[in-house]
Amino acid sequence: MLNENDFLTFYPQFTIFAQGVVLSEYIRQANARFSDFEDDAEEARRLFVAHRLTMYAMSCAAAGPEATMEMIAAAGKGSQNRIASKKVGEVTVSYSNSSAVSGGGFGLQDLNETVYGLQLISLLKIYGFGRYIP
Question: What is the mean pLDDT of residues 59-84?
Fold first, then answer.
């Protein structure tokens, strides 16, 4: 099971959250959700927590002047716009910001918003989306 010390050793950039309830809550959620990921359970848990903390930092970055939270948000931010189509003659490019996963009703829609979530998507594809419980 993942704990705060192990998580912060792996991802020291999140130490700003060490004194708060947010980190412990996301670790609790991760431990409950990724028990079926065999040898990759700890990685899935770490990625989930890093993703959630980054999303949290992104939502807080506009609210406060804390540069570390803004840096976390910027560092973990996934690509919003993806090239959906292009045309060479008379140059046309169209972008899509659709999810890397559609999510359906599985609560996966925000995973493409951070680099940690994108890595978690790769694990979900290996083990199957059915093992993830939002």
Answer: 57
Assigned token pair, 24: 């412990």
Residue whose token pair is 């980190």: 23
84/101 Cα distance (integer angstroms):
15
pTM score above 0.85: no
CA distances from 27 to 48, 67, 82, 102, 125 (A): 8, 24, 31, 25, 22
The whole-angstrom separation of Cα 33 and Cα 124 is 12
- Which range of residues forms the domain containing residue 49? 4-131
Total structural domains in the chain? 1
Answer for the pair 51, 120: CB distance below 8 angstroms, yes or no: yes
